[in-house]
What we know:
By secondary structure, the chain is mostly beta strands. Among the domains are: 120 residues, Immunoglobulin-like (Sandwich), CATH 2.60.40; 144 residues, L,D-transpeptidase catalytic domain-like, CATH 2.40.440. 5% of the residues lie in helices and 34% in strands. The protein has three helices and 29 strands. It has a five-stranded antiparallel beta sheet, with no helix packed on it. The relative contact order is 0.17.
Amino acid sequence: MGEYTGAAGASRGAAAERDVEVARVRDSAVPTIYRRAGAGAAGLALLLSAACTGGGGTADPAGAEGEGDAVQVEITPEDGAAEVRPNLPVTVTASGGTLTDVRVEQDVAPADEQNTPEGEGEGAEAAPEDLYAVAGTLNDDETEWVSDGNLVPGTDVTVTATAVNEAGEETEVVSEFSTLPATEGQRLELQSNFPTSGQTVGVGMPVIVNFDLPVENKAQVENSIEVVSEKPAQGAWNWFGDQMAVFRPEEFWEPDQKITVDLRLAGVEAAEGVFGIENHRLEFEVGREQITTVDDAAHTMTVERDGEVVKEFPISNGRADTERYTTTSGIHLTMEKYEHLVMDSSTVGIPEGSPEAYKLDVNYAVRFSNSGEFTHAAPWNGQLGEANASHGCTNMSTEDAKWFYEESYMGDPFIVEGTDRELEVDNGWGFYQRSWEEWLENSATGEPDATDDTGTPGSVQGEAE
C-alpha cells in the first residue's frame, strides 16, 4: 500500500493543474434565443424579430390605423439601467394584449477584461450558442415572461419584446441595460473537473467539479449545472467541503452512452458578491460495464464485463494486523493508473527510517482510494491466492496486473468484500458508500435531478434586495 504524491486522481484541490476540458465562448457576441413556453402555452413559438423601435416604453403599433389600443409592454430591468445584478430575472409583461415574441441578446465580448482571467481565451473555439441562452417561462394567459437563468456579468444586454392586441396590431419594445461586472478576487471559476471532455469512463463515474473559491449558495450552483444522458437516469449533487461538488446517478450509469454536462455558471452568485463568469460544456462517453469484485477471505478478484465473468485472479490483500494495513471494504471506483509507480510509505504517514518504512517500485498500478490503495504487480509476494500479506494494496502477478491495468477505465466499480475496515465516502471516490436516500439528504436541493434534458430541480437566481 502506498501513496503517490501529487496524484491526478486526488479529487480535491491537488488536481488544480489539470486542464479544464470544456468548450468556451470567447470570440463573438452571442444572441440568446428563447422558444420555451410555460404551462398552458405549449403551442406558442416565440418567434424572432428584429428590434426596430425605441426602448423601455410602449411603441406605436406597427402598421396600426387606430383599430384598437396599443398593448402596454413593460420590461424589467428598465432601459438604461446599469450594474444590474446578473442573477436577477428579466421580466416582460403585457397589458391589453399578449406576448408573441421575446428576444434577449448579450454582448459577450472576446477576452473581456472584466471577466476573463489574464492569459486565457486566446485562440479558443466558440462554444454552442445555447450555452448562453437564458430560458424563460410564459404564464398561462401569455401576458408575462420571466427568465429562468442568469446573465453574464459585465455585459450589455438587449431585450426585445413583441406583443399583439385583440385587433392583431403589434407593439414592439426594447430595453438596453448592462450587468454588474464580477470584480477581481470574486470571480467563480472551474479549477478542475473529472472526467474531461472526450474521455471514455466506467459506469460508476461521477461528475466531479472543483471550484477556485468557496461556494455558499450551493443550491443555486447545483441548479446551474445540468447533466443529460442518452439513457436517462436520476442523480443528485453532494458537496465535499465548499469547493468540490459531485454528481452521481442513483445507480451506476447504463453502459455505452454519451453524457453531456452544461455548466451555466455565468452570473450565478456563489457567495455574497461572488459571481460565476463563464459557461462550459463537458462531453464524455460511458463505455462497457466492467465491475470487479474482490473476495478478501477467498483471496480472489473476479472481473465481470456486461454481466459475464471474463477473468478471475488470485490476489493478496492487506495483512490486516493494523487498520492502516487493512484493505478497505466497500464500493470503490478506479481513479487513475500508472504503468510504473514509486510507492513511498512517507506519503501515508510512515516516516523514513521507521521499522515499517518502505519504498517500492511497482508496475501496472491502478488506484482505488486516496489512502494509498492500488492493484499492482507484486512478483515478490509468494502468497497470491493463499493469504493476505500486503500493506493494504491488492497484490497480483505481473501478467494479471498488466491485464487489469490495460482493461480498466477511470470510474469502473471496484468492490471489496470481507474486511473489517469500511471505505469512507470521501476516501477517493467512495461516493456510492452513501445510500441513495443519504445522498439525496446531503444534496443542497434535496431533490433528485433527472438526466433527461428537462432542466434542474430549482432556481439559479437570487432574490431582489
